Amino acid sequence: MNNQRGKHSIVFSNRPNIVGAAAVGGVKESQGPQKKWFDFTLEDDIFGEKTWEKAEGKMVKKAIDLALSNGRVSEKQVDILLGGDLINQLMIANYAARDLQMPFLGLYGACSTMTESLIAGSVFIDGGYASCAVCAASSHYCTAERQFRMPLEHGNQRPPSAQWTATAAGSMVLSKDRAPGRNICVTAATIGRVLDPGIKDVNEMGAAMAPAAADTLLTHFRDLGRSPEDYDVILSGDLGHVGKKILMDLMAKQGVPMAENYNDCGALMYDDSQDVHSGGSGCGCSASIFAGRIIKEMRQGKIRRALIMSTGALLSTISSGQGETIPGIAHAVVLEAEGGE
Questions:
Q1: Homologous superfamily of 15-175 in CATH?
Q2: At 79, is the secondary structure helix, strand, or coil?
Q3: pTM
Q4: Domain residues of the chain, as ranges?
Q5: Using one digit for the tens of pLDDT, what is the confidence trace for 264-299?
Q6: Which residues contact 260 (CB under 8 A, 6 or more apart)?
Q7: Has domain 183-338 been given CATH number 3.40.47.40?
Q8: Strand, coil or helix: what is 322?
């Protein structure tokens, strides 16, 4: 059976099941609208460690441990761990994998890493190459700021278009076996293209990613013969308020207006009182909302079919220093709930 749809999309015939999921949030994130959806929140963002990087590593391990526990899966049952972060050479994910001692594939898609890992994990399960896969992604405001922008000690002013890197992590456990009760499965995915709108400002990442997000959505609808109305929820992450508006404008110009079922993780993570300007960003932003809010609402029966899409700004400290533009990418995954409570 040919599972490919067009050149970019896959329909999974064996429907990998999400048997466990967990979301971890930092201090600022736990003070925002997503507070009740986190499985664990930090009392301080250093998380008892000596460095911000070690704190982020501890955070993603916590998300993985909780996801395994929620899915009643032991570490020994895991065939492969897939995940990544924003820090040089996937520093956080690599050290987490060192401690967990699972077969590991490190992935880098910038802030698109969570859906990238879900697609890769689903291919392993659907193809019969693994029975259980763990997918994870994380970010931390303090680790990302000093790598991509300015040391925190500078206290530099942020423009209105800037986004706040979420201190958060999310993890999902995929299995060939169904979960008891209301089962959630991965039914399809669309792999995005790298598009470059010519943005150079690191504080305009929503604008840099929005064209790739629109391209992935249009490709997904075309490949699967669907429209926005075929989903209860369409959630991008993380374009923020600026990028969300650009995406909606781009889709409307293509004759595919986004309805009230669409929103963005960057726009949802914080409220107006938290002074984050254009909203949230970072791998952990969409990872924690997907693994927290979306999975829980699907288990509660509030969502039957969801299209989740993570977006990534593919820049580095070197590319920015050399005057390069910021390309963007977006990957989309379809989640569907089956069965009763």
A1: Stage V sporulation protein AD (3.40.47.40)
A2: coil
A3: 0.95
A4: 15-175, 183-338
A5: 999 999 999 998 989 999 999 999 999 999 999 999
A6: none
A7: yes
A8: coil
